[in-house]
Each structure stands twice: as structure tokens, then as C-alpha cells.
Amino acid sequence: MGAATQQEPARVDATPAKAGVDAGPPEAAELLNGLAGGDPQPLGSGAVDNAIAVLKAMDPLACLSDLLADMNTLSPTPALALPEVADLIRSRLEGIELCSITAIVGPQAGGQGGDDDDIRPPQAAGVLMAVAGGGSKVLEGLTVVRGPQWSALHVAVTNAPLHVHSAEAGELPDGSPLPEDWARLCSAAGLASFLAVPMALGPQVLGVLTVAAAQPDAFADPGWQRLMAATASACVQHMRSPQLCYLASMLACAEGEEDDLGCMEVLIYGLSMYMRRCTNLKVSVRVGLVDRGRKAVLVLEGDPKAPKVKVPPPTSMDDNSFRPPPRVARALVATDVPLAGTLLESAVTAHKARCIKDCAAYFQSAVDPVGDIFTAGSSLVSSMAVVPFSHNESDLGGITGWGAIYFTLPEPCDFALLQEDVLGAVSATTLTLHARLRDRAAALGPCVAEVTDQRRRSSSIAEGAPGAEAEAASVPGSAGLSKGAPFSANNKKLCTEAMKRAIQHKLQTTHKGGRRSTGSSVAAPTNQDLVLHDRIGQGGFGICYKGMYKNSVAAIKVMYARKHEKEALKDAVEMAVLSEVNHPHIVQLYACLTDMIEVAADKLDVGVAQLGGTAQMLPHYRPARPDDAVTCNIVIMEFCDRGSLRDALKRGAFHRRLEGGVMAVDVLKVVRVLLQVSSSLEYLHDRKILHCDIKMENVMLKSDPSREMGFVAKLGDFGLAKMLNDNYFVTNRSGAGTITHLAPELLKAGAKLTEAIDTYAFGILMYTMYAAQRPYASLTQEQIVDRVIRKGMRPTFPSAAPAAFVNLASRCWDADPKMRPSFVEISATLKEIINGEDGGGS
């Protein structure tokens, strides 16, 4: 829009209905004469549009109805609507170079309410909520201002418009100095005319709407003040909303913190409370900052071990105050995560939000899962959205963003339903975060580490000991660090505990979790809890000991740290499944100790194990600290004293050699063991869990004098277990397992896996138990794939094998998964075989 014309406006000769219209320049009069009937020649539609455009350029109020109509189509979420309003004003009104919207918070600020000093700033503050146009970068460095030297606070005090015809004079009409922000805009962006109007609700100023132009006297026409006042009134509904009042107060409080970690403390907990109030869901928030070297991202989040403080509810429906936890409950955890292969990298590179609806299902199906879902500070994470900061810059060499906000939920969630609230939170906080923390990831990391070291050294001082306070105060490096809550620093490790919790939660909610979780120990087990006696086995990823747990004989499986999330998931799945199942033929779990660290055995006198005649000191374990590089997970289970089914087969538990070299098979004993295994798989499949590794080595035997056989079979080793989705299948991504027991579909990437893969392996188990030999022993892996998987080759039973037994095994390993029987049918058939063999025994 142009400035008001200085010449006497011409009058249009028109009918009485058109008389009195200011036509402005001669070309406008000529066009309007046609509209009024003065020109006998008809005008085209283009001429009419031009005439209307000239009229609107001359009279600011002529644009009001269109502007208000467009504002009615904007987002209903205040934090999203205000940037749209600023951009709409700047683009629709000719001559405006800059438009900004500032919220006023603090004492006497409208709609604030409440008495929580932790969230409300001690004095009135102006918080920049939106800015568009030339000069934006100047204001983006002034996201929160305090004092009457700033234009927004000046207007807030007077509750009246503030107009400067030409900023070059350097002062206001009353002779007082030009507001500092306007002086900077004049100097840095060449803006000359300014107009600021209050967004008020009676005497309470909620915000300030400001426009600026490069031309002097751009807003001299009184219509401009009326137009801006009407526009400001239309924005009051957004400025008075509880959500915006809270966000503005939180940002003012965060910016007022002396140190960066204190700022993050307020933002992270404040945003979490904001999202919970808006959505009525338990949303948690993290902030990820990309370092300038583009090698890592610093993830800051709340410490789940921080004291829980109940936040009082609003006192009334009109109480707009949001009360975050006090400082004591705001401990943060910082984790350095390699940037490559993270959800944040994908989000900031594409400048689009990235969401995972179900983290447990995602990890199970992803070939190469991202590395920033589960971190050291993770509580229960079942779904996640990562939204890059909307302030986009391209100076990071291919990474077009400098950070993002993570939103996590303890339940699977479609974040499309929360889109407005999530985007509003990011939009509102981006400007303040950019001004305060841009390029601070590299500095924040060491700062957090220093605070952590300070905390650890302080905690080592005897509580209440003389001079303890003085010694704690003298810890070097404490100056300039957060004076609020403590912080913990971590390098990225595979956080199995967080993975386990997510999988457990899914099992409990959608897979008929059979018992309450045994949980995991937070503190290190005492000598009475866990005592190692003998090493009884060792594999590629861990060692198994026989020992005692709470005075009960136990098998203690120590699984050492994996290199990647996909590998760590195997440990998490095994612990989660064992924690949630409860069946007499599944190995019972006593406890899971996740993210532990092994203490050097030569430093502790904890016992001696004999292995191969060599005395070895047994290790000791404690919970891992943030600076521990290598961790392990410990699974404590019931001890199966008779070993595995493979061990029993080698001992001749099911076969005996007769005269002439003929091998006799105890069919009843074989079938009874198979029936016990079948019942465990029937139980698992009813809960939509696939074992995926049925073989003799994974069936354990435990003495039980009450049983006819003298022992009971128990299914174990759930490292390859999978959870079926709601449609009772899971997409194949790996094909892991024992090659001789793999169903053909397991070698097809993308195939739909069902319970039938366990059925196939069970058929091979039936053969192995009866024939007392491995299937395809003379074939290489490549030959097995070619002949068995592709050409349909199957093991051949001895001729004396019972027909019903052979028929059942053949049905189990049918090439068509749909033709394989369920374990309900398998169990029924095995019972029939038992009844046929002994006349009804069990």
C-alpha cells in the first residue's frame, strides 16, 4: 500500500449512490467513471479489477474485509495462526516491509493468572511470536525484551498506538528516544515508518501488532491505524488463549535463565507440560541440537529418575496458568548421538517431520533402525515424532536444519492426530531456541559433562561431614554452570532397558501379557541377590553361569553389549518376552538387570570358577554410569539341571541300541516331550508371539520327580522372537535362524511370516528327536538352500516310524504355510498318538 496522496482528491461525477468517493489520481478517476456510468463505453473485467486495486491502494480500510476473511481461514492453533497472520499482512498490504506480533507476559499481562514464579517472568516481557518480511533477522535476535525502551513494552504500558512517520529523526513525536528495536531496524534494514497497535482486552494488553515500511510517512493516513486496530482485535482470540499465554510465559522464563542448560531445563519440561495439557496424553519432549561439524547430535531430555512432583490442577476454567514442576524435578540427561542414521538427520535434511507410530513394531521390521529412539534418558517410548526447527538455514553443508524437537509417547500413536499441537509448539519455540542455542551443541556437551563430574565428586563427599559444603562449593568448573537441577552426560550406548520397556508395553497391551513385568533392578544386586558359582556355557555374545539369586539356584546369562540397535533388540526382545509370559513349559525368568557394567574380577574377591581345570575369578556387576563405555545385560532364569534336549539326546535319553545294531526309540517319551513343547508354542501363538528358533538346543530339561519321565521340558532362548501385528503376520526382514530349520518363506525378503514358521521348525524337531541325528548333515548351507528350500527336499524317517507321527511331521513342513497345522491341532494329534501307543497314558 502506498502513502496517502498529497494532492486534492478528484471527485467522480456519478450517480448519488456513487457520489463522494475519493478517486485519487486521474487514472483512478478515469477508471471509476466507467464504473459509475460516466463513460458510455463498457469496461472489461481487467479494468474493473484495476479500478478496485487503485481504490484499495488509496484507502487502507478497503482491504479490511478481505483481510479479515482470509484470517478466518487460518489455523485454529494460536502458535501456528500468528505467523500466518504476520505473513498475510505483509504480503496482502502494499508497502508493508515488515510485520511482527509480540506477546506481552508478566505482571499485569492479560490472561496470565496463577502464582507460579517458576514459569512467569518476574517483570513484564515482550515475546516475539511471529515476524515476516525484511528486517526479520534483526528481530529474531530480540526474541524476548524487557523494559520501556522497546516498542512493544512502550505500547503495553500506554495501551495506545505508537506511530513514527520517519525513524531517521531518531525520536518519537514527544521527543523521547526512538525505541531501540526500531532504531536497529532503521539502521540495519532501512525501514523508516513504524506503526504499533495494542492487542488489548479492556485495560489488559495481551500483545502488540507492528508494521513497518521503507518509505517515510507510509502510515500517515488515519485509515492505517483503524485497519491495524481492527486486525489486532481479530487476533485477540489467539493472544488470550491459554496455550499461547503459557508458551509466551515459558519462553520469557527460559530466555531469562543465566545459563544455557537452565534455558533448556525450562523449555523441555515446559513443553512437556504444554503438550500434556493440550492433548491429555503423557507426551515427553527432547531437544536435539546438531553440532556444526555435522557429526553428532546432542539430545537433551528429562531424567526419568528425577523426583516426581504433582502439579496442582487449574483453579478454574479461566485459570490459564500452566505450572511445570519446580527446579528439583527438572534434572536433565544429555546424550551424544552420532548424527548419521538418525531420525533427526532425516527430518532436518528433508525439512519435514518424521514419525514412528509404533517403535516396537518399527524395530522389529526395520532393516537398519535409526539410532536416536532409545537414549540413556528414555522413559517408555512407544511412538515418536521428530519435527525440525522451522527456522531453516543452509549453512551446515547439506544439513538444512540445526536441530529438532522430539515428541514421545508411552503408547503407539498416530501423530497426524496431534499435528496442530506439535507444529504449534515447535513454531512458538523456534525463534527463542535459535537466538539462544544456535551452534551451541558443541559447547553444551562439555558443559553437561562438567556438571556431571561436579555432581559425582560432590556426591562422594560424606553427607553431613564437617566441611562437606565447603568442599562441594570448591569443586572446579562449577562457575557459570546451571544453578538449577543436576544434569547427567552420556555417550550414546545401546539402551536395552528402554527397548525392553517398549516391547514389554506392547506385549502387555496387544499381546495378552500373561503376568506383570518382573522389571529390572535399578540398584546393583547385593551378594545375597546374585552369586556366581560356575561357568556352564559360552557363546558369541555372552556367558552363562550357574549361581544363586535370592537363595535360589539360577542360570545367569550375561549378554555383552551389541554394536547396533538391531542386534541389541534381540536381547531386549528376549528379556521382554520372558518378563511377560508365564507357562509351565517356558523357562521362568527371575530378573533382568539391564545396562550393567562388569567390574574387573581381579579387584574383587567374589569367588572362583573351575573351567577346564583352570581357576578363574568370577566377575562382579554394577549399574553402568554415564561414562562407562561397555555395558552388558544379565538375564537370571530358573536353572534347568538336565541341560538341553540335544544334551539328553547325546546321553541316549530317548534311544537305546539293540542287538544287531538296531536303534530302538522310546516313542512315548519323544511324543510327551514334543507335546510339552507344542503346548508352550500354542500359548505363545495365542499371544501373537513367534519363537522363530525352535530346535533341540533351545528346549531345556529340568528335573521333576512328580513327572512320569522324571523331568519337564521348557522352551527357552527368545532372542529371535517376533511379535505379530494386528493382521497376524510380520514382514520378513532378516531370515535369521538355524538354516536346517528355516521355513522357505524365511529366505524371501518381504514375505509375510505367520505362526507357520514355528510349525515348520517343529516338524524338523520331530524328525531330529526320532532319528537322533541332524537333518541334512551331509549338505552345505548352499546345498540346503538349493535342495530343501527351493526344490522341496525333506528328511526321510526310518521305515519303522509310526505313520501318524510321520504324517504329522510332513504336514508341519509343508511348503505351503497355509497347509501347515496350528499348534492346537498339533497338540491334539500328539495326544492321539500317545493314547494309541499306551492306551491312554499321558
TrEMBL record:
Any one GO molecular function term: protein serine/threonine kinase activity
InterPro entries: GAF-like_dom_sf, Kinase-like_dom_sf, Prot_kinase_dom, Protein_kinase_ATP_BS, Ser/Thr_kinase_AS, Ser/Thr_Kinases-Pseudokinases
Domain Protein kinase intervals: 530-834
Amino acid composition bias (Low complexity), ranges on this chain: 459-480
UniProt xrefs under PROSITE patterns: PROTEIN_KINASE_ATP, PROTEIN_KINASE_DOM, PROTEIN_KINASE_ST
Keywords: ATP-binding, Kinase, Nucleotide-binding, Transferase
PANTHER family in the cross-refs: PROTEIN KINASE DOMAIN-CONTAINING PROTEIN, SERINE/THREONINE-PROTEIN KINASE TNNI3K-RELATED
Protein's UniProt name: Dual specificity protein kinase shkE
